[in-house]
Design brief:
By secondary structure, the chain is mainly alpha-helical. It has two domains: 1-204, Up-down Bundle (Growth Hormone, Chain: A); 238-462, MFS general substrate transporter like domains (Growth Hormone, Chain: A, Up-down Bundle). 74% of the residues lie in helices and 0% in strands. It contains 16 helices and no strands. It has helices at 21-42, 47-74, 78-96, 102-130, 136-162, 168-189, 199-202, 206-213, 236-246, 252-279, 284-301, 305-312, 314-335, 342-375, 380-406, 411-444. Helix 2 crosses helix 10 (252-279), helix 12 (305-312) packs across helix 14 and helix 13 packs antiparallel against helix 16. The relative contact order is 0.14.
Length: 462
């Protein structure tokens, strides 16, 4: 039995076969930047068409997540699911290189959204099954770090590939080849575990649950996670109201509401950001560089978030991260008030988007800990299903709202709206902390301490 390692460098590769996940993350990170640029540059499309593509993709991801989770439970062939997923990416990226109009792109991007959750479910279950309980914190930290390293590699390849020429279509072949490398590496280097676990068991282990709750490092949306398949019986609104009434005295509805607003603002901002950079005069290579700053900041900050949660307290940390991120949105809106030179625009966006990357790393750890704390001994399958449904609704609503605001033609309005929505979530996080302290004091029979105190919110290291 191995001993969990604490340092970032020591836990970088918990097992050699985890390196197989580096090429696929490089491919998806590069593709997330190529897709909107393909619409804007190669197909001479508009910001609104980027928003439509994102709406179709997000909707496909949400609808297919339930099916892939069910299939992962029924057919525990993790290796096969990963090979099919990564092989599909390789083929679809290559086909996208030859699209002639935006409608063909819509169709292919929707198919990519339909197959995307297959690999997420399979990879998380694979790690849960291949490692002992004492090894899992290291394993999931290593898995996340492989994702981040891969994303940096993919964005760096995109930057170098487009530095001399905006060769976006040929870059898609490179990204497809990277996805194929991961498919081959999984086929050769990984074997299915002897024991099979289910998606419901993911919620019982904090490390695996946090891995599922984080936004995907490339697409910057959390892939919806339904440990229990939602019931298909009628009156969903009435059932949701009954659940909300039942949970009225608990902090969890407040946590879900604040998370919804955060995801809504993030999707609104992220979908509009690449078109904004393009209209600001940045070349494709510079846009890759700006995205690289975001992912690089995440890579640096994530390993320290567990320590920050212990020192500051998760309740304070989630509010501060949200506040810093809202200031980043406001700063980006401020860039639209002045005609910045191309060099100045690149430098300003490198700095701000890097800060946004660091803040999302802090936020996702703190908010995941608050959600896990709120689950308690109750049925996590139903509660996480509600959380995923709200996250999916925020992803679609953010993309749709971006498309609507695109008709106004003002990025300034979008970034100000994103900041306002995010600022609205901060008092809700505070109310959630107060509700938690009151619930805990009722259980202990003691007076409620001050809600934001670090000592009042012990958190496990990430």
């Amino acid at each position: 039995m191995s001993t969990p390692l604490r340092t970032w460098s020591g836990r970088l590769v918990a097992r050699p076969w985890l390196v197989a996940f580096v090429p696929i993350n490089a491919a998806t990170a590069g593709f997330a930047v190529v897709l909107p640029l393909l619409i804007l540059i190669s197909l001479h499309g508009t910001w609104a068409e980027v928003a439509v593509a994102a709406t179709l993709f997000n909707t496909a991801v949400i609808l297919s997540s339930v099916a892939w989770g069910h299939l992962a439970d029924r057919f525990p062939r993790r290796r096969l699911f990963l090979i099919l997923n990564y092989g599909a990416f390789a083929g679809l990226y290559a086909i996208l290189a030859s699209v002639g109009n935006v409608f063909e792109l819509y169709a292919l991007y929707t198919v990519i959204g339909l197959v995307s959750p297959a690999g997420v479910s399979a990879s998380n279950l694979l790690i849960l099954e291949k490692f002992r309980e004492t090894e899992r914190p290291v394993a999931f930290a290593s898995f996340q770090e492989m994702s981040m390293v891969g994303s940096l590699v993919g964005l760096l390849i995109g930057f170098l590939w487009t530095a001399s020429d905006d060769a976006l279509r040929s870059l898609l072949f490179v990204l497809g080849a990277l996805a194929a490398v991961s498919a081959v590496a999984v086929g050769i280097g990984i074997r299915d575990p002897a024991r099979a676990m289910t998606t419901a068991q993911v919620a019982q282990h904090p490390e695996s649950l946090f891995s599922r709750l984080r936004p995907h490092v490339a697409w910057r949306i959390p892939i919806p996670f339904f440990p229990r398949r939602p019931p298909w019986r009628p009156r969903p609104v009435a059932r949701f109201r009954a659940w909300a009434k039942e949970e009225l005295r608990h902090e969890l509805p407040l946590v879900l509401a604040a998370s919804f607003l955060f995801n809504l603002s993030s999707n609104l901002f992220n979908i509009s950001y690449t078109p904004y950079l393009y209209t600001a005069g940045l070349a494709a290579s510079s846009i890759f560089l700006v995205n690289l700053s975001n992912n690089f900041a995440q890579t640096l900050v994530f390993p320290a978030t567990g320590g920050l949660a212990n020192r500051i307290g998760i309740d304070r940390l989630v509010g501060r991260a949200s506040y810093v991120r809202s200031l980043g949105y406001l700063a980006t809106a401020g860039f639209t008030f002045a005609a910045l030179a191309r060099g100045a625009s690149l430098g300003a966006n490198l700095l701000v988007y890097g800060i946004l990357g660091g803040s999302i790393a802090v936020y996702t750890t703190a908010s995941s800990l608050m959600l896990f704390r709120g689950l308690g001994p109750r049925d996590p399958g139903r509660l996480l299903g509600v959380n995923s449904a709200l996250g999916g609704a925020a992803a679609v609503a953010g993309a749709g709202l971006s498309g609507v605001l695109a008709l106004l033609g003002s990025y300034r309005v979008v970034f100000l709206a994103a900041s306002a929505i995010l600022l609205a979530s901060i008092p809700i996080w505070t109310l959630a902390s107060v509700a938690y302290e009151r619930r805990r004091s009722r259980a202990d029979g003691e007076p409620a301490p001050r809600p934001a105190s670090p000592a009042a919110t012990p958190a496990k290291p990430h």
